[in-house]
Fold each of these.
Amino acid sequence: MSGSGQTSVSGMRAPGASRRGETRRQERWVGFRWSVHLVILALAVLLWWIARDMVSVNQQLKDAGRVRFELTEELQGEWRIFSQAQLPVTLDVAGPTKEINEFAAELDQNPGRFAYRYEIGPADIAQLQPDRRHQVQLTVDIRNFKATSEAVVPAELRVRPLGGERVFVVTLERFIQRDAAVDLGSSAKGQIQVNINRRDGRIETRAYSYGAEVKLERPVEVWGPASLVEANTDAAGHARLRVSIDARQVLENFAKSENLTIEQVLEQGSVVSIVQLLPIDGVEVRDKEQRRPVATVPVKLTYNRLQDYVPVSREFNVDVILPNWLAQKSARVENLPSNIRVDMKVLSSQRPNFTEQYVHVRLDLSSLNRNELEIENVEGTSLKRAKVLNLYYSLDINTERLTYEFENENVTAEQYLPIGEITIVWTE
C-alpha cells in the first residue's frame, strides 16, 4: 500500500520543519545570562564602595585644627601673649574614608572645635632675655601640643598635627610699672556761669573762673603690658592718668549733698570732689605702696567770681517761633520790629564773640493755644487774626563762648525785654 504523507519519528525534526521554538529558548537563555552579569557587576560595585569606605587611608585636612597658647597661673599678670594666641594647624587623619569626610565636614561647620593647647610656664622663658621692648620670642615644637577636651574624634579615626619638625614662634610681652600722675588737661582751669536765686524771686547770672588740682594721699602707679604702659607715658617717664571734670556739675552735686545753696558753696571758695579716672584699656592703676587698685582721685576746685567785664551793645534780628498749627498756615506777626538792641556785659577777652553766631533774639510763641485766643475775621477777606499781650523777647546765648552779665539787674536771658501788643494774621 502506498501513501503520500510523510512519516515523522519521535525526537527528530522532519525535513523542512520550523526552528522557531528553539530560537526562543536560546534568546531566553542569553537574556538570563546578561541579567546575571548585571547583578554580579552591581554587587561588585557595591562591595567596592563598601570596601572603599572601610579601608583605612590617610588624608591631610589643611588648617582644620587650632592650637591655643595659654599662660600658667604663675605667669598671668606678669606676662601676656603679644602675638596671636590661636593659630591654625593642618591635621593628619587616618581611618575609613566615610568617617574622615564626616569629620572634615564637621570641622568646616565648626571652625576651631578641634584644638590643641600649649601652656607656657616659667621654664619656657627662664633662659630668654627680653629685648628693649620688653618682649621675648618662644619657639614651640608641634610635638608638644596636647589635645583639649573639646576635641571630639570618632573612635575609627586617628588624628595628629601634621609635621613632626614644625615649630611655632610665640611672642610674649612683659608687664612693667611706671609712676603715674594725673593730667587734668583742659579741665585744670576754665570758666562757668551759674544762676543764683535772688530774694525777690528773680534769677541772677554770675560768672566764675575755676582752677582744679589733684590731692593724692599716696603716690599711684600703673601696671600692665609694656606697649600699653609706654603708650601712656610722657617724656619724663610718668604715666599720664586723666579725669573728666564738669566744674558746674561738681558745684551742684556738692550743694545738693551738703544741703546748701549754690551761693553758699561759692562763698566757701573751694570744694573737694571724688572724680573717676578715665580707664586705660589693659592697664591697672594702683596704690604704689599697698598695690591696691585705684579708680578715683580727689580733686580740689577753687572758684573765683569774675569781674573783668566790658559793656557791649548791638542790634540782632528777631526769630519768631510759631506753634505748629500756625506755622502750617503760614502765619505772620504784624507790628513787630525786625531788630532788637541787646545790651550786656561780657568778659573783655570774649568781646569778639558778641555776634549773631552766639547770640539770638527769640519771640517764642510756641505755647499759644488756639482755644485761648480771641480770633477775629478780617472783613472782606479769608484772613484770621488774633492779638497777644504780655510776652517777652528772650535771648539764646552760647555760654561756652560768652560769659555775661546784664547792666540792668532786673533783666534775665529768659525775659530780656517785654513786648507791646502784637497781632498774628493767617489764612484758614
Amino acid sequence: MKIAFLPIDNRPVCYTLPVQITRIDKDIEFFIPERNLLGDLTMQADISGLFKWLENLPQCDAIILSLDTIAYGGLIPSRRSEETFEEIKDRIECLKEILKSKHAKIYAFSSIMRISNNNINEEEKVYWNRWGKKIFDYSYQTHKLGCESCIANVIPSEILDDYMAGRKRNFEINKIYLEWQKEGLLDTLVFSKDDCAEYGFNVQEARALEALGGFTKTGADEIPLTLLARAIGQPIKTAPVFLAPECKDLISNYEDVSIEKSVTGQIELAGCQVASVEDADIILYVNNFEERQGEIVMGVPTKPFDGIWEKSEKPYMIADVRYANGADNAFVEQILKSGCDKNFYGYSAWNTSANTLGSLICAAKVKFCAQNYNEEAFKALEAVRLLDDWAYQANIRQSEEAEIKYAMYPFEERVNKFLDTNFTPEYKFPWNRRFEVEVTL
C-alpha cells in the first residue's frame, strides 16, 4: 500500500512517530516530505516546497493531509497568520486542483482555532502574554451567557478585533473544506477541537460546522495518525476495558467529552469497531483516572493505579491516561513485571487522552493488519514510547538539573529488558524546550 502523509509540523510526534509506526509493516510504502520543509515553533512551513512535493507524488492509495500546513504553514501559524481570507482561499484552491489530479483517497483534517486559558504566547500571537486569559474568559462567558460579556470592555479593542478577525477567517476557510467534502473530493474530513473547555467560541464554531454536516473531534496532533489507521486494513473489533470502570464518565484535561466517549470516538474514527471482550479481536486497556486526571509536570496529583492488572490472552494494547502528559509510574511497574509477550500490541501515555489513544490505536492496527510484519520496528516504536512517555515525561522531566543522557540510563536498562532488545538511545530537544524530547535509537 502506498500512503502519502503531510504532517502538522516537524515535532517528533508529528513527523517521526508516523514513520516509526508504518515501518511495522514492510509492505507500506510511506511518502513524507523532507523535515526541513515543515514548520516549527517559530517558523512556518515552506508552502511552495510542499506544493512541489505534492505535485511530484507517485500514484498513492491514500493521502493523509493536515490542511493547516498548506493553508497557514502549520498548526501554530494558523493562530498567528496575518494573511487575509482571500490569500488563504487562493492558496487552498491551488491545493484543490493538485488533489483532484491525484485520484487517491484523501483523509484530511483542519483545526478549529483553540483558545488557551493562560497568558503564555509561546504558540499564540504576541499579545497573548498579557491578554490571553482575558480573551479566554470573554469567549467562555459570551458563549455561556448567550450575549457579549462585559469582559470585552477590559480588552483593548484593536486586540479583540484582531483576534476575532483571525477566528472568522479560519472558520470561513473551514466551511470551504466542507464544500470540498460534499463535492466528493475528500473521503474523510475531520475538524479538530484542540484544548477545549465546556464553553467558548471554538465550541460554538464546532457546533456550527456540525450543523452544516461537518464532523468534529476533540484532539489535534493525533488526528493524522487516526486517519492513517482509518486508511489501513479492515475494521478491527476492539473492546475497551477501563481499569476504573465506575469513573469512565469523567472528563480529561484539555477535552470536552468523557474519557469513555473519547475512547469510543477514537476507535470508530480509526476505522475500527467497538466490541465486547468476548467478540473482540483486540483488547484496549484504559488506565483511567478515578477523581480527576493528574498532570505531573503541572503538579496536579491524582490517585495512581493501585489494583492488580491481569493482561488478556487475546492481543491487547494499553492506553495510560491516568495523568496528562506522562505515565502512571505505579501502573508501568506492573506492565514491566508482567513481561512482553506476542499479544502485546503497544503502550502509550503521550500528552492528552486523545493523543494517547489515537497514536496507540494506529500502531496497534498497523501491526494487526500487517502483511509483512517487522518485529524490530514494533519493538523500536515501543522503546521510544516507554522512554518518552514513562521515563522522560513522568520522571526525568521533573528534575530541571538532570543530565538526560545519564539520568535515562536506568530506565533504558529496564525497557531493553522488557522488550528483549539492546537499543542505545540518544536524546535531543528539537524545539529547544523541555515539553517534547526526541528519542532516536
Amino acid sequence: MSFPFKNDRDQAKDFLYGYILTALADPEASAGWRQLNGEIGIKVTDLDIGFTLQCSPDKVEASHGYPEKPETGLLLSSDTFHKLFTGKGNPMIEFAMGRIKTAGDMGAVLKIVGFLPQNVKVYQQYLSDKGLA
C-alpha cells in the first residue's frame, strides 16, 4: 500500500498538512491529541516533511517543520504513515520492525497508539473526500 503522493513532495506536504488540520478539527480525533499536553513532532522521513503539534487540554495547533528537539517525536516513511492511518498497519508491529522511530516521551507515544483509531476514521474520510479511497 503506497502513499498517494510519493513522487511530489509539495503535493504530499499540502495533503498531509490538510489531513492534520482535518483531524484536529474533528472532536473525537483531536481529543486524544489534546490529552498529550506537549509538543509532538511528526517527520515523514522519505519525503523530508515535518510537522509540529502544540497540544494542550484546550486546543491543538499545527505548524510546518519538525522541531529540533521535540518532547515526543514520530519518524516514519510516507508508506508507513499511509498504512497506519488507513487502518491496514499494526503500530506495534511497525515499531518492532523499526519502521517507526521515536524520540522523547514514550508514554506519549503509547497514548498516540491508543487514540489512533479515531484518526484512522478521519484519514479514511479525508482520502475519500479527495477521491483517493
